[in-house]
Amino acid sequence: xxxxxELFSAQxxxxxxxxxxxxxxxxxxxxxxxxxxxxxxxxxxxxxAVILPVGLKINGVDDSxxxxxxxxxxxxxxxMAQALSVGVGVMTPADIDRINILQATRCAMLAxxxxxxxxxxxxxxxxISTIDxxxxxxxxxxxxxxxxxxxxxxxxxxxxxxxxxxxxxxxYPGYGFSGHKGYxxxxxxxxxxxxxxxxxHRLTFGGVKEYVGCTSS
Length: 217
Prior knowledge:
The structure is a single chain. The chain is an alpha/beta fold and 217 residues long. It has one domain (4-169): 2-Layer Sandwich (Nucleotidyltransferase, domain 5), CATH 3.30.420. 44% of the residues lie in helices and 14% in strands. It has 10 helices and 5 strands, in the order H-H-H-E-E-H-E-H-H-E-E-H-H-H-H. The longest helix has 24 residues, at 148-171. It starts with a helix and ends in a 22-residue tail after the last helix.
């Protein structure tokens, strides 16, 4: 017979361990932060910040890259319904070209925190780079697999960006944005060679910068 406590598995406990440490240390509002879109050749980089109720476990939430698009969409709705606050930050391709992808990602993360309706006093950030904020923060390598708050943020960022890229496919047909979401697939690379960069391509990225000046049809 399965006991209720067993449903809260060791893995589930692990995904809340960073949040629990923060709360036990006296912090009262923890936000998880992650980004989507660092690697693509086109489109913005997006970040999300998510504050979940203390102790909340949402079944199935994991690193967005490990989930199917359908699963991400379903969890997106669950997270939006159950989170205390969600913020999204965006940096455009022009921003990325101007200040580089690392700095643009950090700026998107800061913007996501600033969009929260509730002010966190502790940030759990995926990766190794802090953001320019006075709020206490902890970076976690592979945090989207280790922290529930960060995993929730990864899903919000990924789904939001994917939806935008589907819209961009209609605005800039021929590049296949709805399929590859701006990543450097063979079909995408061929489209860049054929049409030249679109207005949403990152002109400083390899695979794009070689074709700057080509006329887009």
